[in-house]
Amino acid sequence: MIKELPEKYRTAIQLSEIDNRSQKEVAAQEGISLSGAKSRVQRGRGLLKEMLHECCEFEINNKNQIISYDQKDKKGCKHC
After folding, report:
1. 77 φ, ψ to 5°?
2. What is the model's pTM?
3. What DSSP string runs through 12-36?
4. Which end of the chain is less congested by CB atoms within 10 angstroms, N or C?
5. Could you give the CA distance from residue 66 to residue 17 in angstroms, rounded to a whole number?
6. How far is CA 14 from CA 2, 19, 59, 72, in A?
7. What backbone phi and psi angles, to 5 degrees, belong to 33?
8. Residue 77 belongs to some domain of the structure
9. Is residue 16 part of a domain?
10. pLDDT tens, residue by residue, 31-44
11. pLDDT over 90 (residue 26)
12. Is the residue at 19 inside a domain?
């Protein structure tokens, strides 16, 4: 699903979440302000969340952790 994000959000998510870089490092690498990097990461996370919720139903425990999930449409979704 990350591959489907617009490039600026995809890059921010890739660097911060997958490559485990700080948002300050993301800002430096992308040549943007720290607040700009934070916004991109936050927006990218939000877009990913929307995609996930389009495809799946989640069961969440009292600690706000996903404990199970099921696809909404067994034929698959446009993101999976």
Report:
1. -125, 175
2. 0.82
3. HHIIIIIS---HHHHHHHHT--HHH
4. C
5. 18
6. 8, 6, 26, 26
7. -70, 160
8. no
9. yes
10. 999 999 999 999 99
11. yes
12. yes
